[in-house]
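Entry for the shared binder. Reason: the reviewer on the internal report wants the predicted structure included alongside the sequence.
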Amino acid sequence: MGLREIWQHFQDRQGQRKLDKLTRRLCEKYSQDYERYGAADELSALPGEEPIYRLMHRFDVLTAKIGEDENEKKYVFDLLLAKGEPVIPAILRYIRNKDNLVYPLRLLLAIAGPDKACALLTGILSSEFSPDYNRVPEKKKEIIQALRNFADPALVGVLMPYLRDPNDDVVLGAMEILAAHGDTDETIREAFAEMLTSEEEKPRLKRRTAELFKERRWKVTGFRKKAEEVLPEGFYLDKKGFVKQVGE
């Protein structure tokens, strides 16, 4: 190794130590708030993706005073927002590696805009998670909830498999989004009809499915006989095949 390589290695180690030190200061929940603010400012001033990623670690820490904690996170959020699109790779890296996603998801939407944010998040759901991957159900739920206001038809293909997710909250999140597309996509109504008439479906999910049939005014066409046998208590079918609730 030549002198230039030795010097570069030394510089890299020094830079890494500085990043580690600032990250510890930023995330030290029992220190004074001005120390965390100072660490945030120093990280924000450093070039490259790694300091941005380290700055986002503040979102993963909860300090003792809730009001101060929210103020600090908002401060970090604004520092990152001001940097614009160069922050996006670090946000996606954080979403993949960390669990507390409320602020990163808001940040992604604010910087990337709805269309690009939707495409990036559906890409993560379709390529890096699945209903068979149940280690981080909370993360899947948060990502799906972040997509609830998007109207992109691509969401249908991405979210349909999540109707089989083992976590009820993940399924419910996917159901709410898919229901908004069900008036124009017959495959969604049929998938919900199968959930409604399945004897093995969980009661909580079956009841919400019945409510969605009622709210969306979907008929149980093709599933009437089975639906009449297994509708949740308090629901019935009218003569036209619409799901109604007792007392209406």
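Summary line for the report: The longest helix spans residues 3-26.
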